[in-house]
Design a protein that fits this description.
Elements: H1 19-36, H2 42-48, E1 71-78, H3 92-100, E2 103-105, E3 108-110, E4 118-123, E5 129-135, H4 139-147, H5 154-169, E6 180-181, E7 188-189, H6 194-199, H7 210-220, E8 223-226, E9 229-230, H8 234-241, H9 250-263, E10 268-270, E11 277-281, E12 286-288, E13 300-306, E14 315-322, E15 332-334, E16 337-338, H10 342-346, E17 349-357, E18 369-370
Parallel strand pairs: 8-18
Antiparallel strand pairs: 1-17, 2-3, 4-5, 5-14, 6-7, 8-9, 10-17, 11-17, 12-15, 13-14, 15-16
Helix pairs in contact: 1-7, 4-5, 7-9, 8-9
Length: 392
Amino acid sequence: MPVFEPTAGTHEFDAVPGLREAWSRFIADAFESNLYGAKDSAHSLLLRWGYSDVDLRFYNPASMPIVAGSKPANVFWPALPTSYDGDFGGKKKKLYEYLDAPQKENGVRSRVQDEYCEWVVERDASGKAVRILFTCEPPEFYDFLYRDPYGVGKAKTRALLLSLYRDRCGTPDVALKELEAGKGSKRAYDPYNSWNAKHCVHMQQGANTLFAEINIVAIAGLLRRKGQKVLTDAQALIDCGRYGEPKRQSDPKIGATINQLARENRFFTLENPVGLYMTGLNTAGWSVAGHPELDPQSLWKVRKGTPDADPARSMIVRAELVSPPGLTLSDVLIGGVPIRYGAQVAEQIQMRVGVLVSEPQAQLPPPHAIGCRDANPPVPPPAAPAPGRGNR
């Protein structure tokens, strides 16, 4: 039985025998590399300070059973980025325009929406918004199908990749070569391909990845100190541990929440299926001009994943806001203001990441705190136990 289900618990991988098992292995390996990899893993950082994996509280459920009595918990944050707020002098229109448009970063033009939720606005001939597509599907989901890293069968996995693209884009015209970059042996899946750019198939902003989520939880789960003071502040922790992006809303909040769990001496792991999810769209205060009978919530269509009345259980990874029949989204008002930008709608979307959390482990000593990434450990360091899985 696979330990890890595909993102949002969907059944798309059922089309290829062995693919679900391969995905489970793929995620388990990501856990292991962040926990026990040779460089900058949680364990390697502990060893550098003379400690061992008995100080780890984040664990891989593929190699350690779920701790008895564990309960789900969540970290929530808004989907609208705040990283660029200081660039536009408080002028929201300019900010919204910037966030809606692709920007050139690191040599490529891509979406810059950096809260693990991205969107594309479709407009009519007059420039009015008629549909806004949202995704928080990870790029790894699609790159995995292209590469077939565990030998399920590339012909089958790439056929599924094409099928998913054609479904997302609403056309049979997508060709495999259009999803690739490079030549010969260097040919690879291209997350910046034109189909993804136009139809928002999956996230493409460089830091919006599933592996980033796993890394943040692994590294933020280590206690940190400056001198003898154990750090607890969200910004101090992310600056010290150098995980994620400090200007985001998501990464500092995820890191601080996870670090608190470790300080409370709890074991924790990521909720299965591992993902970053939209919980839904808040349409309180919305209306449709001239149509009081229309419920704006009916314009929100979930295309992949599962919505739930309880935000802590929703697993939405693809959705769209569509125009009312015969109207455009400019006829939809948020607090009396017409929708002209996808960013206006993103401001009403909440994101979440789920974890499973144990009770405090009173029978175990609390974890040791290590120094910051740029600090030097004691020389010589305290004797450390041989590498292993001390808390397994």
